[in-house]
């Protein structure tokens, strides 16, 4: 068996994310990244991990409300594992929160 790491980088969605009042009234950009570790019997299309299902799951958060980045990344992480991944690291970043900071984010990893 072979081991692969699938890398999803900066999938951008707009959603309501945060505990502050201003974060509940206007959607903001959220960037989602994931590193997904999988085993595969071969490189054939029937044996690879279907990352489209991960992307679709993340896109479904568009225009939804979640209070914390911790909750968001934990939900995504659980979904990835439910699809058969060995382990994953998922992180979110909010690029528009602070003017003097590229982004603020949370990372969650486990198996």
From TrEMBL:
Query: What range(s) does the Dihydroneopterin aldolase/epimerase domain occupy?
Result: 6-110
Q: Which residues form a coiled coil?
A: none
- Identify one Pfam family in the record: FolB
InterPro entries attached to this UniProt entry = FolB_dom, GTP-CH-I_C/QueF
- SMART domains xref list: FolB (SM00905)
Q: Which domain of life is it from?
A: Bacteria
Name the UniProt record assigns to this protein = Dihydroneopterin aldolase/epimerase domain-containing protein
């Amino acid at each position: 068996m072979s081991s692969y790491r699938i890398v999803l980088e900066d999938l951008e969605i707009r959603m309501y994310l945060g505990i502050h009042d201003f974060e509940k009234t206007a959607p903001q950009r959220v960037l989602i990244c994931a590193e997904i570790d999988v085993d595969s019997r071969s490189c054939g299309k029937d044996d690879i991990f279907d990352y489209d299902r991960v992307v679709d799951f993340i896109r479904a958060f568009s225009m939804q409300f979640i209070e914390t980045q911790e909750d968001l990344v934990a939900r995504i992480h659980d979904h990835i594992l439910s699809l058969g991944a060995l382990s994953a690291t998922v992180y979110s970043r909010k690029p528009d929160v602070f003017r003097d900071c590229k982004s603020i984010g949370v990372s969650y990893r486990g198996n």
